[in-house]
């Protein structure tokens, strides 16, 4: 038991991390075999089951850098988790992006103060190369429209100058906005674990509607499958 995870079942060395705990529940109930719930503390639902014969866990982290930092620290430090794949939603910044397009975050810029508390300089939070490469190969093989590039992990969903700010980030090559990737990459670097942020586009300035709650919970099949197949390769 740790302050935020009270395991009632095994936790696998590889884990998928959606922000939404109901996304975790959907994956456990529909894509894993023999899934058992290992956590329910604070509604951060976590499950472990098998996928193609390999043990995989999936756990909702909630939204934002402080929450995901707590969960991934406890998972790596106390529960032996070695491979972490965030499966989130994001705002897609490029004009040709469409709903549910897949994004693999090579690195995560951030507006968050988290790394300022740690480093005397700017840390570059990056994905594990082999995990990224594997996910990219799997997505390409399945002909899933996939973008790789920098993401922005922001502390504010409702920022004051969201449009202007995203133009600035875009100018420097950022392709999508979300709220957890930078913390995941930074903390995984500390514990020498593999991490990847994989995102499905849920909205964007060039897209005429947002994904529904139900689509974000249950509809991101391409991302779920690419994440599961990537996870079991490690
Ligand atoms: O769908 P999830 O994984 O929660 O990801 C995105 O959605 C939330 C904001 O609506 C933030 O957590 C953001 O990172
Ligand atoms: O964090 C997020 C998620 C979806 N869309 C955004 O603009 N930001």
TrEMBL record:
Keywords: Glycosyltransferase, Transferase. It comes from the Bacteria. GO terms for molecular function: purine-nucleoside phosphorylase activity. The keyword Mitochondrion does not apply. The keyword Transferase applies. A purine D-ribonucleoside binds at residues 4, 178-180, 202-203. Its EC number is 2.4.2.1. Gene3D superfamilies: Nucleoside phosphorylase domain. It catalyses: uridine + phosphate = alpha-D-ribose 1-phosphate + uracil; a purine 2'-deoxy-D-ribonucleoside + phosphate = a purine nucleobase + 2-deoxy-alpha-D-ribose 1-phosphate; a purine D-ribonucleoside + phosphate = a purine nucleobase + alpha-D-ribose 1-phosphate. Homohexamer; trimer of homodimers. Catalyzes the reversible phosphorolytic breakdown of the N-glycosidic bond in the beta-(deoxy)ribonucleoside molecules, with the formation of the corresponding free purine bases and pentose-1-phosphate. This is Purine nucleoside phosphorylase DeoD-type. It comes from Bittarella massiliensis (ex Durand et al. 2017).
């Amino acid at each position: 038991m740790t302050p935020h995870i009270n395991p009632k079942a095994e936790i696998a060395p590889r884990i998928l991390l959606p922000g939404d705990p109901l996304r975790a529940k959907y994956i456990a109930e529909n894509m894993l075999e023999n899934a058992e719930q290992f956590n329910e503390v604070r509604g951060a639902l976590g499950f472990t089951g098998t996928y193609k014969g390999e043990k995989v866990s999936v756990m909702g982290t909630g939204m934002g850098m402080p929450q995901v930092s707590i969960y991934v620290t406890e998972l790596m430090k106390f529960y032996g988790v070695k491979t972490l794949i965030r499966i989130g939603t994001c705002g897609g910044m490029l004009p040709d992006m469409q709903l549910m397009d897949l994004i693999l975050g090579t690195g995560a810029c951030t507006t968050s103060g988290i790394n300022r508390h740690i480093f005397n300089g700017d840390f570059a939070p990056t994905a594990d190369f082999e995990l990224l490469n594997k996910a990219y190969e799997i997505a390409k093989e399945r002909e899933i429209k996939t973008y790789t590039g920098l993401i922005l992990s922001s502390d504010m969903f409702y920022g004051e100058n969201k449009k202007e700010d995203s133009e600035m980030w875009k100018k420097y090559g950022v392709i999508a906005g979300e709220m957890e990737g930078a913390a995941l990459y930074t903390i995984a670097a500390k514990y020498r674990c593999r991490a990847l942020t994989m995102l499905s586009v849920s909205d964007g300035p060039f897209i005429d509607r947002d994904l529904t709650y139900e689509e974000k919970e249950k509809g991101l099949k391409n991302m779920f499958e690419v994440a599961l197949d990537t996870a079991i390769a490690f």
